Amino acid sequence: MKLSSRTQFGLKILCYLALRYGAEPVQAAELARVTGTTEKYIGQIMLTLRASPLVLASRGVQGGYYLSRSPEEINLFEALAALEGELLQMEALSGSASLEVLSNALKTLQGLVAGRLETTLKGLTLQDLVQEGQHYAGYGDWVI
Predict the structure, then answer these.
(1) What is the Cα–Cα distance from 90 to 103, expressed in whole angstroms?
(2) Which of 42, 69, 44 is nearest to 55 (CA)?
(3) Within a 13 Å sphere around the CA of 35, how many CA atoms are in the beta-carbon half?
(4) Per-residue pLDDT tens for 67-114?
């Protein structure tokens, strides 16, 4: 599965908001700094995320963005669907009867893959993704 740059930044934003869950709202300037992109691009991505049920915003000097639910309650299927829309898209083939057979076979494959992908992504949450990222960065590998 190929994820657009916009979706990759969107996932980084969601993970950062997950890390900051329960704290003060996060302003666009901070999101731009931690993701390494511009505030303008953050604004475009946040328009998409705010249109979904995942992210809320507050106005004012102390305003910013925050998750609408805890990271344990937001699965990756929701996150990717909010950022990408339909995850698996195939264009229909047109032409002869043999192309129709191939087209139907591809539709079957698409349905199987989409079903497995959806099941897998619904079983993973933002919290899982953040914990994996922390593990690979060396956080949480030891206990005191």
Answers:
(1) 10
(2) 69
(3) 28
(4) 999 999 999 999 999 998 876 565 555 566 566 777 777 778 777 888
DSSP H stretches of helix in the chain: 5-19, 28-35, 39-51, 76-84, 97-122, 126-136
Please give the radius of gyration of the chain, using alpha carbons only, rounded to the nearest integer: 19
pLDDT (tens digit per residue) in 18-73: 999 999 999 999 999 999 999 999 999 999 999 999 999 999 888 899 999 999 99
3-state secondary structure of 79: helix
Burial annotation 17-39 (CB, 10 A radius, 16+ → b, else e):
bbbbbeeebbbbebbbeebebee
Torsion angles phi and psi, residue 90, rounded to 5: -130, 140
Grouping H, G, I as helix, E, B as strand and the rest as coil, residue 66 is strand
Query: Given the structure tokens 């915003």, which residue do they identify?
Result: 57
The model's pTM is: 0.78
Q: How many residues does the structure list for the chain? A: 144
